[in-house]
Amino acid sequence: MKSKSLAQVTDFDLKLLRIFKTVCECGSFSAAESLLGITRSAISLHMSDLEKRLGMRLCQRGRAGFALTDEGREILRHSDSMMAAIEGFRQQVNQMHKQLRGEFNIGIINNLVTQPKMKITHALDSLREIGPDIRLNISMSTAAEIERGLMDGRLHIGALPLTSPVSGLDYAHLYDEKSELYCSSTHPLFSGDSDPGDDLLAQYDAIAPSFRMTAETIGLHQMLNCTATASDREGIAFLILTGCFIGYLPDHFAAQWVEKKLMRAVAPSRLNFSSKIAIVTRKGRRPNAILERFLQALDL
Prior knowledge:
The protein is α/β, with parallel strands linked by helices.
């Protein structure tokens, strides 16, 4: 496709970029039909219009399926940043009218919903009461992905374990989370001694998290025979429940299986650690009334 310069970004371009973003999120034209409320042929025409406007091929479509080109991935990334900037402008205007309207984008690590203190849940409830027109968007992802989203403006706030702070972000302690070593009811350790000793523990396969850990947590995992990895706590739970592995889980998350006698903690008095869960925002962020009200609801 012949390259050309883009003279200006029009309302029509923004509409086309929003359609493009939706198609990318859905993974195909057909999957985006119901969400967009238009036919596949109309979506295809819009994509062709956008490619002509930008002077580059954004995606491959056909019998082989939908796939972004390298240029398409770059355009998607830049359009995400632009949409975030537009949303920021809208929030500034709304703030001038003393109205809490607009989108609030939150990134949270998996499995915090079972935390009994429920500070985030209560803060969301409080925010909803004072701003019923606020659109809440929650994405569950890894700590690294949340930090990237905060840095590039896609997220307003994040909740994640505090391990190694990233320059450019502010971290505020929310609460502590205790984790213990667990085995399932079908594991040989389940009916054995409450503290089988390090030598015996080293004979069993264990799980190592692939996300960032503190030095203390790394040391505890080095004592085990880690033969599997998991990207999040749900993945660790899956492996523990096979009966083939032992691994560390937050006690509030493991409680649902402990109550059903499907798991138990191994040597809980000594094989445990505490993680600080932090609320994270970007340093030097622009004033945002929704974010400030949410932080107030968290008592931060």
